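Quick one, tokens below. Sequence please?
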């Protein structure tokens, strides 16, 4: 999926809290790719980086996959065209959620 252009439906916009865990605050936009199924049987989740306002939908490029070693899920990292992030930047921006897992970031 790295390098592909996808549309993310954002169900947890920047500034929102997790519906089941209200202490989990979303400092970035987070959602899913409608119609693309993940290993957990749900639609593929994605972090949207490089957008500094809450959004409901976003079309961008997949620049990385976060592979969780202790979970069946993988997360995609989607950014605006022409924008890039280092592994360390992605790690820092997704830490609010990925801190609960052992994961590896794979870039192109």
């Amino acid at each position: 999926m790295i390098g592909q252009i996808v549309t993310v439906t954002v169900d947890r916009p920047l500034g929102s809290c997790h519906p089941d865990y209200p202490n989990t605050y979303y400092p970035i936009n987070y959602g899913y790719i409608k119609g693309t199924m993940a290993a957990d049987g749900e639609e593929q989740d994605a972090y949207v980086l490089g957008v500094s306002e809450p959004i409901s939908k976003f079309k961008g490029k997949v620049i990385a996959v976060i592979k969780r070693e202790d979970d069946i899920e993988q997360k995609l990292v989607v950014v605006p065209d022409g924008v890039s992030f280092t592994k360390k930047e992605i790690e820092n921006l997704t830490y609010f959620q990925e801190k609960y897992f052992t994961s590896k970031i794979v870039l192109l």
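Strands lie at 5-12, 29-37, 43-48, 57-68, 74-79, 103-107. The mean pLDDT is 95.
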